[in-house]
Structure formats: C-alpha cells, structure tokens
Design brief:
Distance between the termini: 21 Å
Helix content: 55-70%
Order of helices and strands: EHHEEEEEHHHHEH
Shape: elongated
Number of domains: 2
Structural class: alpha+beta
Oligomer: single chain
Strand order of the largest sheet: 1-2-3-4
Number of helices: 7
Length: about 200
C-alpha cells in the first residue's frame, strides 16, 4: 500500500491565518490603548495568536505542511509512528466545534519511534500551546487551567493530560485535514482494514 500524506486545505488555512492576524491586531490595540487589564489580555492574545501561529507555521513548513501520514504500519504524527494495533480509535471530537481525535491504547512504541530532535520539538510545541493557558488561569483565578500547563513536563504526560481532559491524545482542527471529518474517519478505517496485519514485535 502507498503512504498517504494528509495536508491542510489551502483555502481553509488561509482563512485561519487571516483570523489569527485579526486577533493579533486586536490584542496589539488593547496593549497600546487599554488599561492594565486590557493590556494583560492583549499580551496573551498577541502571544497566543501571533506567536503561536508563527510557531505552528514554522513547524508545519518543516514538515512540508503534512499534518499526518497514513502508512501500512500505522499513523505518523509529529515525527513518530503510532502502530495500527496501538490506535484505539479515530473519531470526531465534539466540542464547541468538531475536531479530529486519535485515541491511543499505549504510548511507549510511539514515543520510542521518535528521533530525539522530533521529541524535543513535540514537547516544546506542547509547552508553547499550554503557556497561554497558564496565563489565562492567572487572569481568571479559579479557571483550573494553570495546573495542566505546569504539569505537562513530558510528552507522555502531555498525552495523558489530553486523554484525561478531552478523551483523545491527539486532536486536529478540521483545517489540518484534507476532507470533511466524517469522510476522513471513514477513509482512515478503510485504509486500516486494507493494511497488512502487523507482525508480532
């Protein structure tokens, strides 16, 4: 079977970038013209939407804008391979919007498959995403979000936190997928059924 690389739909990615630029401009205006509360909120907005989007785009460019790859052996994500037998489920996560979720049965083989440099990048990306959460928790005491950011000190722990909080270890925006989510889930299942059985390792 051939490998299938999944990339974002360009027009959706463009819309997200335009939105991120708009929020960054709004945050910058709050920093320049707002009071102390607005300045704090503006800084978080600029860091999250401006810095976060820039960081995400650089990482995506490094991976040739490939979100994930389906292979006969499993799913490649962030430089690591999740063997098919370790993929517990691929489905649609329903939150404020629908997202693609991948649920794992175990983590050790995925983590072991990663090159050290890829693991460092994955952990730094996770921490970059969680820093604004800690900042928001500081602005709104009692939100209960800061502890998540502070305890996600490793890739394995970050995966467990994702599972405990969202029900999935990996979550992807529809922007990152090349077709509607329900169709993509069906496509993954068809691909998986067509893959050769895994050998015992």
């Amino acid at each position: 079977m051939e490998r299938v690389e999944i990339r974002p739909r360009p027009w959706l990615l463009g819309m997200v970038l335009a939105g991120a630029l708009g929020f960054s401009a709004f945050g910058l205006a709050a920093v320049v013209y707002g009071d102390s509360g607005a300045i704090a909120f503006g800084l978080v907005t600029v860091i999250f939407f401006g810095g976060g989007t820039t960081s995400a785009m650089l990482i995506m460019a490094r991976r040739r804008f490939v979100s994930l790859t389906l292979t006969p052996l499993g799913i490649e994500v962030n430089g690591g391979l999740i063997p098919w037998e370790d993929v517990q489920a691929v489905g649609v996560m329903k939150a404020s919007t629908e997202l693609l979720g991948i649920r794992l049965a175990r983590y050790d083989r995925y983590v072991a498959s990663m090159m050290p440099a890829d693991r460092i990048v994955a952990e730094e990306r996770m921490r970059w995403f969680l820093r604004p959460i800690a900042a928001i928790d500081g602005l709104f005491p009692g939100a209960g979000l800061g502890n998540i950011a502070r305890t996600a000190s490793s890739l394995e722990r970050g995966l467990r936190l994702g599972r405990n909080r969202f029900g999935w270890e990996f979550v992807f925006s529809p922007v990152m997928i090349d077709r509607p989510l329900v169709s993509f889930v069906a496509f993954v299942e068809d691909y998986r059924r067509s893959s050769p059985p895994a050998r015992d390792s």
